[in-house]
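Build the 3D complex.
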Amino acid sequence: MIKPTDGKIGSREFFGLVLILILIKTTGSTPMYLFKLGQNATWMMPFFFLLVIIFPFFLLYKVLNGNKDKHLIEIIYSLLGKWAGFLLISFIFLYSFSSLVLASRSTVDIVGTLFYPITPKIMIYLFLMLASFFVAKRGLEAIGRTTWLFYPALNLFLLFALVLAFPILHVDFLFPILGPGLPSLITSSIKHSATYGELFLLAFLYPFIRSNKDFRNSSFLGILFVTVQFSVILAVFVMAFDYPSIKNIAYPFQQLTRIIEVNAVLANYDSIFLAVWVVASVIRFAILLYITTLIFAYMIRLEEFEPLLLPFSGLIVMLGIIPENPIVVMNFFNTVVIESGWMIINSFPVLLWATWKWKERGAY
Amino acid sequence: MKKSLLVIHIIVLVFMAGCWDRNELDELAYVIAIGIDAIEEDGFVVTYQIANPEEAGEDDVASEIISIHAPDFLSARDLVVAFVTREVVFTHTKVLIVSEAFARRDEFLNFMKPAIRERQLSRKINLIVSKERASDFIRNNKPTLETRPHKFFELMTDRWENTGLVPDSTLHSLFHRMEEDSGVFLATYSSTVQVEGGREGKEDDHIPGEVNIQGGNPTQTIGSAVIKEGKMIASLTGEETRFSLLLRPEKGIEKMIATYPDPLEEKYRITARLLAEEGSQVHVNTKNRAPTIHVKVPVKLEILSIESNIDYVEDLEKQHLLKNHIKTLIEDKLNTFIKRTQEEFRAEPFRWSLRARRTFLTNKQFEEYRWMDNYSFAEIHIEVDIELKEFGKQLAPTDMKQVKGD
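Done.
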């Protein structure tokens, strides 16, 4: 029986969204920055991220569950009032928007540097955002389905890369086991817990998910999955390149796919990974674009947000092309967005939950 | 409706052919090997071996070799336009050859750095140190069995990994070892010039140029160049290279053939094939300033030939004698070589630092321990664990007295 579509997504689509949004970060500039801090013990950091964000996220889930008929922005407005609510939402919007701009620019840089050195960056950027716009324009249901269709392919290729890389991996490179030492690992993990920030952004899609159970299961299971996969991928990078070399390697994922080979005949096939990775990136930016536009539109209390998708795509290209080179982008992203974003994403659920409980008590 | 969709798709395909970075295969010149020489005044000679993809018959040349004076080996690429009509690309480069004279200079590693920054060069390129000038090496190298130069280098590196006479040296591992700063790096050592008269030695006791060969390709690749802190300091013979690989904790050699003097009749030799099915078991104790290292080398032995008439095969007592004899021989040689690394190189090519790392909790502790400096004072115990596995298709050796009939 074919069910009529209701524009909502189910648990597996949402699960796919959680995984693709965060997992794809391992292939971008995030590992480069994490390796500087976590050294050869960086593979532990995802577990610390999980520990840091799981409690605030649980509170956010409680708040959402307690106000089922509203979406998160309405909840924020009703709990915090007009002004404080606006301030908080604009902070979240800034976080989401800037990470979209910088992450997309970073992707463009990787494609440009490694594969299309002569092609102007602006053209790559335009094509990337155009593709993302088309996916986003189809609506959340389409995004969710694409994600779920594509997710097995992405995983298959990651697994493929892992198996092929196996001969060049050395477990010894993971030692000394604690890397920079436990205290420094924990502090840098807390500071970079916004690496998982997309999970909180996905909470804005709560009303579009079929049931509360779908949301709960997919997000908690998804984040657990992501943590394990994230950690394995980081460990593979260390086992392939070793610390301190890993500190100086730009784009470890792409370089790893260049080193691995099946045999003398199949020696240069990194372009296969390029294709898969670009498609995954398009999906990622489509979701981010969708959520960012949604937050913005609801923030200024517009009913329809889909007409805003195109102007936003254009704006992203215009802003994203400004930074001079990838390092400027990477540093800005990691020092400003990630290192200040962790405070926003970890504190607002606590704030919301506390106000909600307080107001609830006041109501009796 | 369907037709118009098809037309649209075809039009889109035309535009998807790529725009700015489009390249036609026959407009590219693929560099197979890059050679680097330092010359007296400030400057370098860079040699490119460019594959000829259109080679058809025997009369065609398989590659073109160009040497030019350039400040570094990448900037030479544009100068090549003066001689080559195609765009020079490095995406299929197999080897980087540097002359020994250049490798021994301080700026060696600095000059190699562009290699890992350049996007077209892969980190898995092989590094070869040639005894003579790199430009001469590339010109002299005339593989006869392989008509394609890239196939020659490809097959050669595969063969090296099997026999252990030559280390597997890639740019990736060179930079890794230099950045790790805890041991020396072994680079492939090669020569195309035979030393006058060669050198009397056993099968693997050679450095390149010393093997007496007649006919074939003049290229001799055996042994390794020792690179410490960014420059070459010494060379190892094929035998020493094998030992270095044998002692590593990860498997470095698959099988190697070696001869040993007969334990009962000194003038005869016994040929055996050593199989290393797993790496050595290395235990490092770093409690004291001078580390204690216990190494157990498991090898399987396959006897290939016994020159003397002594029956080492069916006589279990003699079998045991042979086993112990070879064991002490290998252990003695290993100990002599280890002494050399401790006294001459003051660093190890065995990658034991990997095991030493396990004894520390943080990177800082390991760095402060200064493994490379402490290695020269290390107390090392070697134990070769031999398993006599096979004797080939023959039991006792043929008795020559019977053959001659006296």
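Residues 11-356 of chain A form a domain with the Amino acid/polyamine transporter I fold (CATH 1.20.1740.10).
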